[in-house]
Specification:
By secondary structure, this protein is of the alpha/beta class. It has 2 domains: 25-254, Type I PLP-dependent aspartate aminotransferase-like (Major domain) (Aspartate Aminotransferase, domain 2, 3-Layer(aba) Sandwich), CATH 3.40.640.10; 256-395, Aspartate Aminotransferase, domain 1. It is 40% helix and 16% strand. The strands form 5 sheets. Strands 2-10-9-6-5-3-4 form a 7-stranded mixed beta sheet, sandwiched between helices. The protein has a 3-stranded antiparallel beta sheet with strand order 13-14-16. A hairpin with a 2-residue loop joins strand 7 (176-177) and strand 8. The model has no long low-confidence stretch (mean pLDDT 96).
Length: 396
Amino acid sequence: MSLAILGGHPAFSKPQLVGAPFVEPEVREKYHELMDQVFDRKYFTNNGPLVQRFESEIAAIHQVAHCSVTCNATIAQILLLKALGLKGEIILPSFTFIATAHACIWQNLDVVFCDITPDTLMIDPEKAERLITPRTCAIIGVHLFGNVCNVKALTKLCEKHGVKLIFDAAHAFNCSLGDTPVGSFGNGEFLSFHATKFLETFEGGAVLTSVMELNERIDHLRNFGFVDYDKVTSLGINGKMSESSAAMGLASLPMIARRTEKLAYVHRAYRNALDGIPGIRMLPIGETGRSNYHYAVIFVDQERFSVSRDTLNAALWKENIQTRRYFYPGCHQMDYYRSERPSHADPLEVTRLVSQQVICLPTNLDNPDSDTRTIGGVIHEVHLKAEEVNQWESHA
């Protein structure tokens, strides 16, 4: 194999994307059918029948009493924070998508970043406890890559200190801890239906909760604070999901089992394709409960692989394998948090090390067997030609 960075042709003729949307023929057909109904009804938004049906089905899947869908997951998080009346400091991992932190800032909360455990890549409950102060109002656990947080330890911690517990479940649609689905953990959880997620509605999000009063507050807040046709009782915003987004979600729901089976197969295929490559290991997925297997995550040990994670990432992109360095360099290292909120002192050593090692590989592949072998072959070839690859990188 001749690597593209060394003058060869790319391994793929078109980009292979992390988070490439699923658009099965059945989804297209069902979506058009549902949109014909939308056009016939001339009811495009404002809690339409498709939105209500989508909420009911999402709640049923996650075995939770209440679901409020929103225009995106960031708004879902902001609504949840607002509905809980949080003020003060909020503890969350830095190893997450930046929106998790940004939403807290938009709610005028002081973000306190916490380190992660090296085995799960999720918030470390012991380190979180050390960060609790009299101003702490809540902790956010982020379910990551189809795995679920240490819910038991975080629940015990929050109950001990009298603070709220929220879960970012953007990666965890239809995932579970043991036999318990995400959705009912803590005071509330929020989902993402962004186009790159396992289940997508173009853009969208949801708040899941078992508490009726919290659900009612969120429903009012997402509709400008209206509690009746012309009565406003709170400072709300426009966070509603449209009928067109709900139609996409409903059209996709029958595909859950098929997608999960395909992605689990891709995981197994990657394990076979990467087996034996020095310095490359995969993050275990689904060992503590059901997973959607939407993310395939590898660690690059530079000393053993002989090439850095960033150089491998650049080489893969040249092959049209558009991997992602989730979540580099960590929220606390982003310019805004370094310059505007520089008081954070914890070096977050595990976050720093992990963010320099992790790569997410494409999973929604057209030909899982051959595509994973090709991607594994490229990674192996980069290792074998490490000296030439490193020379290329030094001159790039």
